[in-house]
Design a protein that fits this description.
Number of helices: 6
Shape: globular
Number of domains: 1
Strand content: 25-35%
Structural class: alpha+beta
Oligomer: single chain
Radius of gyration: 21 Å
Order of helices and strands: HHEEEEHHEEEEEEEEEEHH
Largest sheet: 12 strands, mixed
């Protein structure tokens, strides 16, 4: 006698079963290299702008405990997990081929925000992985706590009473809203050091805005970057200057990185007033 569950399973295609199995394996790989457990998981919407001036919104995740945290884009980590194993690479290539055939390349997972930020109070260091397209970098810098000025202004975010704080840091003026109700002194990106979790942060030009969309307790592990060798070791200032040069002339940057001639379509204009999260490299 075939049960209802068995009947459902029989209707799943072999290809889909393989994808499910390999996806499970990929996330199992992430778990096996776990370093420590987070206490809290925070989802943020990261609003920023493409070099063409188009607004973009991407989900970011903060996994944090009292002494360590990881800030990343889950889609980027998913792609990295697929590319970590030969079987995963095969599945990812199949996904890209299927999307190309159907004319829907947007359906393929991408490293849309190739950023990982690891903050460690115990080591007094922040590990950064970031880049653009094929230009990927990593570096370690001292754990930096911003010099915040806390105000009397308050507002409610996701049901938590939040207090406003401001600071000037690495070329930008930041306004953050933190909740003392959540005693994790952390926040999105490199922002931290307030007496409570930062649920919202924006810089005064409006080019970069982090807004919490959900907060929950979690047993998830704070895992390292899987494909660390894909990132060239450098320092913060060098990375920012190289990426700025690329943003100012992406055609030349891609041609150099790929070793082939690249031509940008006519009519595409880049907004050079847009800049990175840190602007003190200029």
């Amino acid at each position: 006698m075939v049960t209802r569950t068995q009947a459902v399973n029989l209707n799943i295609s072999k290809k889909m079963k393989k994808l499910i199995i390999l996806t499970t394996i990929c996330f199992a790989v992430i778990t096996t290299v776990a370093q420590e457990q987070a206490d809290i998981e925070v989802s943020y919407n990261y609003k920023h702008f493409h070099r063409t001036g188009k607004e973009q919104n991407h989900q970011m995740i903060l996994l944090a405990n009292a002494v360590s945290s990881k800030f990343f884009n889950p889609e980027t980590e998913y792609v990295d997990s697929l590319e970590y194993t030969p079987d995963g690479k095969e599945i990812y290539n199949q996904m890209k081929m299927a999307a190309f055939t159907s004319g829907n390349m947007k359906s393929v997972p991408q490293r849309r925000v190739p950023m990982y930020i690891f903050k460690s109070k115990e080591r007094g260091e922040t590990d950064v992985y970031d880049g653009i397209n094929v230009m990927m970098f990593r570096f370690t810098e001292p754990y930096g706590i911003q010099n915040w000025e806390i105000s009397d202004s308050t507002k409610n975010i996701l049901g938590y009473e939040c207090t406003m704080a401001t600071c000037d840091w690495r070329g930008r003026h930041w306004t953050a809203w933190f909740s003392p109700e959540i005693p994790i002194q952390d926040g999105p990106w490199k922002l931290s050091g307030l007496p409570g979790l930062i649920l919202e942060a924006s810089e005064n030009s409006g080019q970069h805005v982090f807004s919490a969309t959900g907060v929950q307790m979690t047993p998830r592990q704070i895992t390292p970057v899987l494909n660390e060798n894909n990132y060239e070791k450098t320092d913060r200032m060098t990375m920012l200057k190289v990426l700025r040069k690329f943003e100012d002339n992406p055609e030349a940057g891609l041609s150099t990185a790929l070793g082939i001639g690249i031509t940008v379509k006519d009519g595409i204009k880049f907004d050079k007033t847009l800049d990175f999260l840190e602007t003190d490299y200029r």
